């Protein structure tokens, strides 16, 4: 379990009500931002403290790794200065019993502030602007939890029961599906095909089956036991052609599909399996993936390689 601090004064209400945190992938000029990159480091079960208007009013558990998602429409004008393409992390928020004002006990926090990218100014206790998501040392997090008394201890116990849940990401998919259902520019056949593709069904599955014959990892070939999985996620596709493209898919056993969807595994262009350092190798092995050495699953089509580049960059969980 890791601890994080999100500074979201402008979007606090949207993110708490929507049960997520969101940031653009890059700054406007295309450069990286450590506090944006941090969204790719959080994992299910991690704790996030919500800081807005000088107070911590919520704490929550991450329920899913970051997913590539567009800027939430509910941000309105507050989000116009950010890029459209971003990361969304679902969070199960819980209101704290009494808001904490870190400035009021900065003397207690100061010895435990991060040396780099601290969310608070050490001299004043004020929040640092332009730092969206910061990693917290365990010692600093413990001070905050102690300040919350019995509630803090009970809150942490709940984290051990946090499962893997799409949460707000699923709601993004739901909203996109509804928009497609209402799109007057789509004929009924295409509309149905694109909606079914979200669940790996219909025309998309037939297109994938024309390219793939078995699960690349387990070699299971009985198609009743396989899922048609998008390489570039359905929500991230820039066109319906991408959503239906058979080269944007793999036939995978259910356990492998989950690993691939969550970014715990990916594939190099030459077919070598990539295993995320964010998951224990023994757990991966128990799910049917050889780890020493990871197997080569064979060549991919040029189209598949293009989509796999997106997966390695935007879905696969790299090391911290």
Summarize the topology.
Blueprint: E1 3-7, H1 12-18, E2 20-24, H2 34-37, E3 47-52, E4 55-62, E5 67-70, E6 85-100, H3 106-109, E7 133-136, H4 138-147, H5 149-159, H6 168-181, H7 188-197, H8 202-209, E8 227-230, H9 240-244, E9 249-252, H10 254-262, E10 265-267, E11 273-275, H11 281-286, H12 302-314
Parallel strand pairs: 1-3
Antiparallel strand pairs: 1-7, 2-6, 3-4, 4-6, 5-6, 8-9, 10-11
Helix pairs in contact: 4-5, 7-8
Question: Which regions have little confidence, pLDDT < 50, spanning 5+ residues?
Answer: none
Please give the CATH class of the largest domain.
Answer: Alpha Beta
Shape: globular
Say what the CATH topology of the largest domain is: ph1033 like fold
Q: How widely separated are the two ends?
A: 14 Å
Domains (count)? 2
Structural class: alpha+beta
CATH architecture of the largest domain: Roll
Radius of gyration: 21 Å
In sequence order, what are the helices and strands, one letter per element? EHEHEEEEHEHHHHHEHEHEEHH
Q: What is the overall number of helices?
A: 12
Task: Kindly state the percentage of residues in helix.
Answer: 25-40%
Strand content: 15-25%
Largest beta-sheet details: 7 strands, mixed
Report the average pLDDT across residues. Answer: 91
Instruction: Give the CATH H-level superfamily of the largest domain.
Output: ph1033 like domains
Number of strand segments: 11
Keywords: Endonuclease, Hydrolase, Nuclease
InterPro entries: HNH_nuc
Protein name: HNH endonuclease
Domain HNH nuclease: 215-267
